[in-house]
Design goal:
Number of domains of chain A: 3
Largest sheet of chain A: 6 strands, parallel
Number of strands of chain A: 12
Oligomer: homodimer
Largest interface: A-B, 46 and 46 residues
CATH topology of the largest domain in chain A: Rossmann fold
Helix content of chain A: 40-55%
Structural class of chain A: alpha/beta
Chain lengths: ~325, ~325
DNA sequence: ATTATTTACGCAAACGATGCCAAAAACAAA
DNA sequence: TTTGTTTTTGGCATCGTTTGCGTAAATAAT
């Protein structure tokens, strides 16, 4: 059934394999008449080229490899959705590998992708990645790569990011506008690009409003729910904070949960703003003002940027795309 | 660098390609000494077999294809996580295709998978799939396939599902126990297996508690938020319901949103139970009692079942795995 | 009619790995 | 030494494509 090959088409039509191949690829050196014959017959038997054989021959796979920390995360799954959307439009397959925030898995994912001869990579770095030589491998092999969200510290790379500084600045400002003074910041490991940028936005905003930056109120937190609870408790009871600025998606939910546990009366005293990509934030009970990333657009832009780059005859200069975050208030 | 082939190893060691190949696969017909030489050299040059060439030769790809309605959905992304977990353990790659609830994309995804010579499929049917001949293709090609969640109506197939009937029954009972009498059910298209099973659980529970089943209170709803709003409004204001039983993840959030829009006083009158896989349901404001599916386990079980089947010499009888739902109350 | 040019196609060698078959090397038996 | 066995190894075809090169046949130029 699905095992029609060029050879069989050739046999049926009394043509050589190469002629059939060229006819299907619409080569100029094949006569119109035979082209038609081949095309028609191929369609009638539902011929589908074997991408594996093609890959082997041309050392390309018409597929891209996405490496992300975690699929089961609103932000990343939306990004994948965007990537998938663009890839589908342009006829590319998508491989997805998760690092689960592990450097080793990041490295091995890169190798798996290269083994599969993917045409390019889209990646967001793991929370443990603090050196970047494994990426040099890709560079030296001249494999196109687009980073998003958590990007390595270099500027001659393709990347799609959001204005994290501005998003954090505006989020913090929102809290200040509500009269809050002791604003804590719970965030991701400092090695991540997003952490630094958001932290700077937060600090910068405080300074601009004559609030001194208190390093004790800046907490780097893992994705362990209990750790979030401990940190929130300390901030609330010892440091007497009146607002929380949360640095990332999973963190935000953990922290919200921790705040909820403080009880209703405490909850109301603490204003919360945070980066998250949860749908329906307005259904959340400790009210949170969400700073959104346009995840779908990020994925779409990243995939298109990558494929453009893959298909370009002369490789263009690396491009940096910066999209806007947006806030979704709850009141 | 990464382009070491068997041929090059052979040249370096003065051995033929086939000897090298066999040495690496630890064949019994190769002398211990040469085996060691080959192994050592291969490691020293970081030899990695080219999976594409292997695939072409043996017509297998050591990869599985996952076809689901939507990645950006808590339930499915968790399932993928489980699949990925098992596949990684057992050395399989994973292709993911989304149908976006389209029958055509379901068909084309199957073809894409087959083109790539995947060793097997894991799928959950689209919301539009009401005939199943495209699946026969897989069957006739003898490609292993495991269904989960939304499965076709046949019993000689591999599948991993939950006890939807029981979950729905218990959910409905929960509402009855709170004294509710007019319990509406908003759910997915009736062609889906899950819809029917849950609907039966709901009806059965009502009957067992001497509440007559009112077909007007059973609403099949798309994933359009506005439709959910309209339906909820009608149910509340015209039909005067006092409880809602929601049939699926995305639906639940839409309906919750609709209920929220009714205003605080109305909200409190309506008790809500629903299938969902959102983390932190207890943070949701119209309170909802969640019926959870063990998504990670489903994925893990499905992948292991599939890979067991793929690797079995004698193909075993199709297996049906039924896992338990569990409730997470909010009060 | 002869030569030059174009057009339309076939042959064969890759791509990297596997596996059948035969052959060389090693050893045992005569 | 010769023959027979066993152990190790090499040669070659193959998977389904793509592509450079060669060459008939068809057309144009002389």
């Amino acid at each position: 059934m699905s095992k029609i090959t060029l050879k069989e088409i050739g046999k049926a039509l009394n043509l050589s394999v190469s002629t059939v191949s060229r006819a299907l690829r619409d080569s100029y050196e094949i006569g119109e008449k035979t082209k038609e014959r081949v095309l028609e017959y191929a369609k009638s038997v539902h011929y589908r080229p074997n991408p594996i054989a093609q890959s082997l021959k041309v050392n390309k796979s018409h597929s891209i490899c996405v490496i992300i920390p975690e699929i089961a995360n609103n932000f990343f799954s939306e990004v994948i959705n965007g990537i998938d959307y663009a890839a589908y439009e342009r006829g590319y397959n998508v491989f997805i590998f998760q690092t689960h925030e592990s450097y080793e898995r990041e490295v091995s994912s890169i190798h798996l992708g290269m083994d599969r001869r993917v045409d390019g990579f889209i990646m967001s770095l793991s929370g443990k990645t603090d050196h970047y030589d494994h990426l040099d491998l890709l560079k030296s092999e001249e494999i196109p790569i687009v980073y998003f969200d958590r990007v390595p510290p270099a500027n001659n790379i393709n990347k799609v990011v959001v204005n994290n500084f501005e998003g954090a600045y505006n989020g913090t400002k929102q809290l200040i506008n509500k009269g809050k003074k002791k604003i804590a910041h719970i965030t991701t490991p400092l090695i991540l690009s997003i952490t630094k940028e958001r932290l700077e936005g937060y600090k910068s905003c405080l300074r601009d409003h004559d609030i001194e930056v208190d390093e004790a109120l800046i907490k780097f937190c893992s994705f362990d729910p209990q750790e979030a609870i401990d940190i929130v408790n300390k901030l609330v009871y010892e440091d007497q904070i009146d607002a929380l600025f949360l640095g990332s998606d999973r963190l935000a939910l953990n922290a919200l949960n921790a705040v909820k546990k403080l009880g209703a009366s405490m909850q109301n005293k603490i204003e919360i703003v945070g980066f998250t990509n949860m749908k329906y934030v307005d259904l959340l009970s400790p009210v949170i003002c969400a700073i959104y990333q346009p995840a779908l657009e990020i994925g779409h832009a990243a995939a298109n940027l990558l494929i453009d780059y893959i298909e370009a005859r002369r490789k263009p200069e690396p491009k940096q795309i910066v999209l806007k975050t947006f806030m979704k208030t709850n009141d």
